[in-house]
Amino acid sequence: MSRKIAKVRRVMREAFEADPGFRMTYEANIAMLIYDDQVEDNRPRAITNLSTKEGCTNIADRILMLIFSE
Predict the structure, then answer these.
(1) Which residue pairs, CB below 8 angstroms and at least 24 apart, start in 27-34?
(2) Is the pTM of this model over 0.85?
(3) How far apart are CA 70 and CA 68, in angstroms?
(4) Over the stretch 40-50, which tens digit does the pLDDT of each residue have?
(5) H helix intervals, 1-70
(6) How distant is the alpha carbon of residue 28 from its chain centre?
(7) For residues 58 and 48, is the Cβ–Cβ distance under 8 A?
(8) Which of 37, 33, 11 shows the shortest CA–CA distance to 22?
């Protein structure tokens, strides 16, 4: 499995290098997920506490879901 993952990572890296706009799309979507969680308007405090292990694990899981879910 690790060879397949390495290949996919290489393909994505090459795609990002070939098309900076494509990479910016991924970056923007990840940034907005974090922004919406942490500082969305009219919310008194963040949903996820990024100063805890659990909070960081939660946001990491949500980022992976955003990228790899259909």
Answers:
(1) 29/66, 30/63, 30/66, 30/67, 33/59, 33/62, 33/63, 33/66, 34/59
(2) no
(3) 7
(4) 777 777 788 98
(5) 2-18, 20-39, 53-68
(6) 9
(7) yes
(8) 11
